[in-house]
Amino acid sequence: MRRPSFLPAFGLLLVGLLLYGGFSAVNAQQPNFPVVKEYRIERSVPPQAVACIECHRATTPGVFADWAKSRHASANITCLDCHLVQSGEEDIAQGHEKYYGRSDLPYGESQYKVPIASIVTPKDCSRCHPDEVTQYSRSKHANTLEIIWKIDPWLNKGMNSANERKTGCFNCHGTVIKIDAKGGIDPATWPNAGVGRLNADGSKGSCTSCHTRHRFSIAEARMPEACDQCHLGPDHPQIEIYNESKHGTMYHAYKEEYNFKAAPGTWTAGVDYRAPTCAVCHMSGSGKVMGTHDVTERLSWETQAPLTVRPQDFKPFPAKTDWQVEREKMKNVCRQCHSDAWINDVYNGFDNAVTEYNDVYFKPAKATLDELYEKGLLSKEKFFDEHLEVEYYELWHHEGRRARMGAMMMAPDYAWWHGFYECKLRFNKFMEGAGHLVKTGEKAYIYPNFPNATGSTQRPEKIFGPQQ
Description:
This protein is an all-alpha fold. It contains 19 helices and no strands.
């Protein structure tokens, strides 16, 4: 009997190995050789998630309706995908667990019991949005609570109460979330959606500051109204400045034509919007400029600081950027609609406004304030309890900011009448009062009963570490 030959099979095997080795060598020589990705979308919803949806449909219909209209709902992202936590975590909502076992609630049975956290944090969002959370974490938004503790005399001198801080300052800047002994959220730190909130899981910020729950709309975050809860008022009136500018005028005239729902990375000047919103200039992708959730980018001056400096020279939070690179990014945003001549002229006026504010108003006032402290004519013990301290503070914190920001955002009324005009009046009053004290040697009058100056001067340990 003739035995079967294995030579053909061996030859095929050898050829296959050589070909495989050849392809492997090619792959090894090409580090950018694309790797085939495997995509799998889970369309099913677990019964525990169904229980959440049905219970909230009945008990909080507003929350349910917002979620049902969201992109999350369209992609089968349910309550559990954001709120679920692991057993034993500090921020488990202990009070929520009492709802399981109630016969009057839909799905209120122990078989649907899962540990959840009331607060959804950037750490939770990072599971699906890692780049956005990374960018946000290095921004001034995410770190604004640390920044104000470094520069704000209201906090460092204890000149307002804990509740004034909670309802005012910390509503925008954020609280340090604390869990009480019963496993609930400490009411002194909650509710809060401040952009610099320090969460129990260690993450910073709140995505819902701009993408409000439970719709989490990209369209909403692109509108200037998303920014106006915090960026308004006598000290940083960006929304008022924007509304006065030509950009704001055009937005309000044509916003019905804007396509706010364009996909990320596709929102285009002249196609989806006529004039920019806050998001266009500071965050959105535009032309050659990539989108970012780091609002510290694209800035070339720190106009909110007492002395205007470059962002990398802002000591409370130095930017890890080069202002010239960032200015070019912002100019590229402007180039979607404007010529270089226009753009450069605007920046020239802005730079001159910064120089004039620094040299004519702030530096002389700061030198005079230091002289008053050095001669003992002002007390360093507290701040705001002497009128000249208030005058100095408002010179930079109110009028000085408005002048600089108005010049940058092309709002003439804020650059002049609310800005440099008021700087002149404030500067004159401050220098006149200071000159009187120096001339007479008289100490400044101290308000004996400064109201509600009961706030703690202890900086948050979770941010600054143990303090002496």
